[in-house]
């Protein structure tokens, strides 16, 4: 009974911690920039006392870069919600109904002909809009979002932890990144696969747990990566303390599953995810409440290891 109570408490703490980013976001930037300003002012005052007033401008240290956490978050909302999502809504809820209405007016004397024309016009317009606008903007937003997410994560980490501790070598850094992307992609596929379990409640629940853990990994990975944690340590920590991370990823998993469109779901994720990056950076996960690790990442790690051994492995042995 105590174990169950500990699991519920850890899930609750994870859920609450995931929401803290929305509150921390609005004062974090101010505190970071005040700290930078005070340190820069103290440093410049020290240099004036040390070198006198004849110091060369070239020797003056550059001012540290100000934090842009709130700015980057607003930019994510503007790009993914104000431009991307809004354009899709305008097209689907404004332009298409308007064109259909025009066709009913033009072919008012022959409704059957109007429906035939519309049955050809709508797919053509949707395909053109998706190819010319949605797909390029979707790919562009993924690239821009990844850069902004990294900027948010680095600024938040420096605020709490200081200078990031990256992996020891460039080769290990690249290998860890590639392997992490592969594992996450396979884990996403595994989540889609378990959702097809014949018993609907069980399949949906398993898929939801997968998405909760995956989104928690997304949010905490920036922090752990800056701490110098390798992928196996990150995954082992999540599997061993899964109640907390299921609770942490639950809000984002539920909100991204509400839209029927994959593209709209991606917009929702990109709008909310900066808040979860900040939340993950601020959070202190609840550990040691469950003696049974949830080894959901083990199958995809085995598959990823096999793929790497068959591709990169032979090249390294030559």
Q: Main traits of this protein?
A:
318 residues; mainly alpha; 10 helices; 81% helix
H-E string:
HHHHHHHHHH
Number of helices: 10
State Rg. Answer: 25 Å
State the share of residues found in helices, binned by percent: over 70%
What is the number of E strands? 0
Tell me the span between the first and last alpha carbons: 56 Å
Structural domain count = 1
Question: Please, what is the average pLDDT?
Answer: 82
Uncertain regions spanning at least 5 consecutive residues: 55-62, 314-318
| Overall SS class | mainly alpha
Q: Sheet bearing the most strands, described?
A: none
- Strand residues, percent: under 5%
Shape designation: globular
Describe the model.
By secondary structure, the protein is mainly alpha-helical. Helix content is 81%, strand content 0%. It is built from 10 helices and no strands. The chain is globular.
Question: Summary?
Answer:
Helix content is 81%, strand content 0%. It is built from 10 helices and no strands.
Helices, strands, pairings?
Elements: H1 2-19, H2 21-51, H3 69-106, H4 111-160, H5 170-194, H6 200-226, H7 231-240, H8 242-257, H9 262-282, H10 298-317
Helix pairs in contact: 1-8, 2-9, 3-4, 3-9, 4-9, 5-6, 5-10, 6-7, 6-8, 6-9, 8-9
